[in-house]
Amino acid sequence: MTLLRTAVAAAAILLAGCQSAETNTTTNSSDGGQEAQIAPILDTPEAKDSATYARPLEARVCHVALDLGVDFEAKRIGGTATLDIDRKPDAREIVLDDKGLEIESITDGSNQPLDYKVGAADEKLGSPLSVALRPDTKRLIIKYKSAKDAGALQWLTPEQTAGKKKPYLFSQGQAIENRSWIPTQDSPGIRQSWEATIRVPAGLTAVMSAPKSAEPITQGGESIFSYKMPHSVAPYMIAIGVGDLAFKPLGKRTGVWTEPVMLDRAAAELADTEKMVEAAEKLYGPYRWGRYDLLVLPPAFPYGGMENPTLTFLTPTFIAGDKSLNGLVAHELAHSWSGNLVTNANWSDSWLNEGVTSYFENRIMEEIYGPKRAQQEAALSFDEMTKALAEEKNGPNTQLHLAAKEGVPDGGAGGIVYDKGATFLRTVEKIVGREKWDAYLRSYFDRHAFQPMTSDRFLADMRANLIKGDKSLEAKLQLDDWIYKPGLPSNVIRPDPAAFATVDKAVAAFTSGGPPPADFAGWTTAEKIRFLNKLPRKMSTARLAELNQRLRLNEAGNNEVLFCWLDLAIRNRFDPAVPALERFLTTQGRRKFVKPLIETLAKDPQWGRPIAVRVYRVARGSYHPITQRDLDKLNLMS
Ligand code: BES
Ligand code: ZN
User: Fold this and answer.
1) What is the pLDDT of residues 466-519, one digit of tens each?
2) pTM: predicted TM-score of the whole model, two decimal places
């Protein structure tokens, strides 16, 4: 069977080139061991990435050195990328990913020009950039500029920042956007070490997802920053932020970067970060990246968080004043193991990043805030999964391992990849027992540190190191059903209904005509979310008005609660929520919030669509290119 075959298949394909080619067989000591200088490329068919043009088994990039200037006027980053490559001796070319890059020249290590060709552009994947290799070519030097309207980059005017005085730039690489500003092989299975020298206008600070390698220098109106990532990482993890940034330490190896006027509020919300790192290490082994800092971005940042190594990127919308949304931090931190250490080889297996991380996140939350909060958050995640299964009618998109679709990796529905993924691991934990399961998961991270992973390999690893031939355990786990079949296997462990007993009673009372819950203000955030999400989607104006008045929902300071309320309100054409809605949609650009709300509005031609048109005209310019790409499909601007 394929799993066995995968287990014995030699994973490391080491070609000739790059400096030292240590293999990874000894990478299992708790101190990080000896890491492979050149991370292996998996050669099995399920590990192939259909979203890259690269053919890494012939020639692959192993190190990227960037020397770039940031031009806020032209909205371009430009300079050189020096790529160290590893190739078969008879390889005639190396293929990189390119999405709109402006290439000026490509030379080899001795500055001899190399022939290259940019192939036809696919709307989603961009173009192959094929560079001819001479027999001795080991290095490419590419002079270039980032794409015009690069999908990875968002340029903010001073007005779009908190301080209002200086411009801002940030990048977002996942899943396949980095090819619009870095010419390399943009596939998570092709790990690369990297370094960067970045020039920005004096007065701005550039931070990146790697340790600082030199003190910044300011001269001639420019500041120069240097970073170096010694580990090999998936190229989507190269990230940059440039702006008026200040830093505040949170603990001995943790700290926060953000605009000066945001610094105190951000630091207060993040006060438990060092404790989270300690809890994570206690669970699943050493944190191997040195520092763990966070960059709190302007509200236009399109995601809740992004796990850029050594420097998590965060939306400011998680700041609630009471740390009630800091599960986001636990999540991005957990990716330092699941995602950054052990990485999905391609986007069909993104549950290995997101599902394992969602499980790990919840374990960190339990360590720090106790079982009640953890159980409630796990129960909300179970609800999300149930909703996603229903929306997808238990169809093929509800498998954890998604079929490799042609084109862009969309990662599947969040409720599946994240929540079914986490539910799977909770089920395994329950069946195996926490102690044994934790020991296994910890050893999994050690065994596969700095390597790509697939579903097949994960299952083979579980069978070799956890199940070890125990037939009855194998039967109980139903592993293949969880990963390769749609819907929900029969052994699923459900959340304890006690977690939300009070809330569910309040829902029943309200829906049978009673008053809104009197003690709502004192509830946990998870309880408020559960309450709002369990209410019927169709409600009368009078009942909504009662809710709004008693629970002060239009004024909710917690953005997750506000989002749940606005979703309910617009489905019922509740006019009094419109000012709050317009404020919410025009003052932040988190995709998870703006996309569903605007889509719901656009589907209601009489009441909602005019609001969507009005809002989008104002807000589009402040949304991220990826969010614009999604929402432009609704034709609100025409
Ligand atoms: N890695 C993801 C963000 C991502 C996923 C970016 C896919 C691009 C493509 C990040 O770790 C994440 O999951 N963020 C969530 C928050 C989390 C608490 C569920 C988000 O942004 O909402
Ligand atoms: Zn994640």
Assistant:
1) 999 999 999 999 999 999 999 999 999 999 999 999 999 999 999 999 999 999
2) 0.96
Ligand lying nearest the CA atom of residue 313? 1
Ligand nearest to the CA of 327: 1
Across 150-154, 274-278, 626-630, least confident range? 626-630
User: What's the half-sphere exposure (Cβ side, CA atoms, 13 Å) at 578?
Assistant: 14
pLDDT tens for 480-495 read: 999 999 999 999 999 9
CA distance 617 to 171: 24
Distance CA 511, CA 535 (A): 7
Q: Which two tokens stand for residue 175?
A: 């899943």
Determine whether the shortest distance from the Cβ of 303 to ligand 1 is under 6 A.
Answer: yes
Atom of ligand 1 nearest to the CA of 307: 11
Dihedral pair phi/psi, residue 262, rounded to 5°: -95, -10
Residue 18 scores a pLDDT above 60: yes
Between the CA of 418 and the centroid of ligand 1 the distance, in Å, is: 9
* 170, 303, 340: residue to mutate for ligand 1 pocket, most atoms within 8 A of CB: 303
CA of 191 to the centre of ligand 2 (A): 19
Tell me which amino acid residue 364 is: I
Angle at 511 between CA 508 and CA 517, to 5 degrees: 70
**Ligand 1: which residue has its CA nearest to atom 22?**
304
Q: What is the pLDDT of residues 284-328, one digit of tens each?
A: 999 999 999 999 999 999 999 999 999 999 999 999 999 999 999
Best mutation site among 171, 209, 238, 306 for ligand 1 pocket (most ligand atoms within 8 Å of CB): 306
* Mean pLDDT rounded to a whole number for the chain: 94
3-state secondary structure of 144: strand
Residue 413's pLDDT is what?
76
The residues carrying an active-site annotation are 332, 418
